């Protein structure tokens, strides 16, 4: 039986012909990394290859690593296997990984979205024989409203809270979602304050994107200074002593999971904005069809439901287990302790 070009092992997705892993979750010698989220870029590999925009991100998160940056579409060959990175549109520096060997082409998407968010390099269609896709939101219930409308609603929410003299606290993952929100917050409404994890990551990304000014919350910050303004914080800060000292405040979360009211209740969030860095149901289906791939491998998300639907549409589709978590991956990713508010 012919060995597949990419295999799913206990260390990660492995290309045995090149002796290279894609987004491995156990330490390996050679790793190609799709993007900077903690479930896809881990510490301990001897050699890293990624897109050059992702180099400062993973260097910030992982420390002193041996990393090489590549351009979009740049072909690099390892043991006669051709690799190239193509925009995934998920977050800044996120890539799909194209693998070609002996006339066979596979694409590993990592995480991806097809809507252009204005800060990430837009998703690029890459045709292939086998397509490895996430399906974080692989249910018909997930249908995204255009970003422009959602961000308008967020600014309207902030303005209304300011009129009532309340602090607006908006939760978004420290890498990707927070910067997407920040890019479109209206500084004419008030000041934008940040949790340390978000501020530090945003500083890394400022050379790449023109963001509004932000103010880091420090021990010297008084809660009266926050009234009427907005605070960007990671989800892990919710319910902490740090946030309880900001009363009176109103909370909101920007996530694809906000589609369901039950998710908002479980997280004790006042307001939910449906904004995801992943494809919705239709985006997944349209992407898969456009690749021309006959074989589809579904990872992390609603894998069983989604792959069964694809088989009903005539695809050779199956599931594989990974340690990727999609939009849940950043919930507890920050290790930075928030400072006290006086």
From TrEMBL:
Q: What is this protein called?
A: Ligase-associated DNA damage response exonuclease
* PANTHER family recorded: BLL1145 PROTEIN, CLEAVAGE AND POLYADENYLATION SPECIFICITY FACTOR FAMILY MEMBER
Report the InterPro entries cross-referenced here: MBL (IPR050698), RibonucZ/Hydroxyglut_hydro (IPR036866), Xnuc_lig_assoc (IPR026360)
Which key words tag this protein in UniProt? Exonuclease, Hydrolase, Ligase, Nuclease
User: Which EC numbers does the record give?
Assistant: 3.1.-.-
Checking NCBIfam families in the record gives: Xnuc_lig_assoc
Natural source organism:
Aggregatimonas sangjinii
MF terms in GO: exonuclease activity; ligase activity; RNA endonuclease activity
The uppermost taxa in this organism's lineage are: Bacteria, Pseudomonadati, Bacteroidota, Flavobacteriia, Flavobacteriales
Q: Say yes or no: keyword Transcription present.
A: no
- The reply to whether Nuclease figures as a keyword in the UniProt entry is yes
């Amino acid at each position: 039986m012919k060995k597949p070009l990419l295999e799913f092992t206990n260390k990660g997705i492995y290309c045995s012909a090149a002796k290279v892993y894609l987004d491995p979750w156990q330490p390996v010698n050679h790793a190609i990394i799709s993007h900077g989220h903690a479930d896809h870029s881990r510490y301990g590999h001897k050699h890293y290859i990624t897109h050059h925009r992702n180099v400062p991100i993973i260097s910030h998160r992982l420390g002193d690593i041996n990393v090489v940056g590549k351009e979009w579409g740049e072909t690099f060959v390892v043991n006669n296997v051709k690799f190239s990175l193509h925009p995934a549109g998920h977050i800044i520096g996120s890539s799909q990984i194209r693998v070609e060997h002996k006339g066979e082409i596979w694409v590993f998407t990592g995480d991806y979205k097809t809507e252009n968010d204005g800060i990430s390099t837009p998703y690029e269609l890459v045709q292939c024989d086998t397509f490895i896709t996430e399906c974080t939101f692989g249910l018909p219930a997930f249908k995204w409203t255009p970003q422009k409308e959602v961000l308008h609603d967020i600014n309207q929410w902030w303005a209304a809270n300011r009129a009532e003299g309340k602090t607006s606290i908006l939760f978004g993952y420290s890498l990707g979602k927070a910067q997407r929100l920040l890019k479109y917050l209206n500084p004419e409404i008030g000041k934008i304050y940040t949790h340390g994890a978000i501020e530090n990551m945003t500083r890394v990304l400022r050379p790449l994107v023109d963001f509004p000014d932000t103010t880091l919350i420090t021990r010297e910050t008084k809660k009266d200074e926050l009234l009427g303004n907005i605070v960007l914080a990671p989800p892990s800060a919710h319910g902490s002593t740090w946030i309880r000292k900001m009363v009176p405040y109103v909370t909101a979360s920007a996530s694809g999971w906000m589609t369901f009211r039950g998710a908002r209740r479980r997280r004790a969030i006042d307001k939910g904005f449906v904004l995801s860095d992943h494809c919705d149901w239709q985006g997944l289906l349209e992407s898969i069809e456009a690749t021309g791939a006959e074989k589809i491998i579904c990872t992390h998300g609603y894998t069983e439901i989604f792959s069964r639907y694809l088989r009903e549409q005539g695809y050779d589709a199956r599931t594989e287990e990974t340690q990727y978590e999609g939009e849940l991956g950043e919930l507890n990713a920050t290790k930075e302790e928030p400072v006290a508010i006086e």
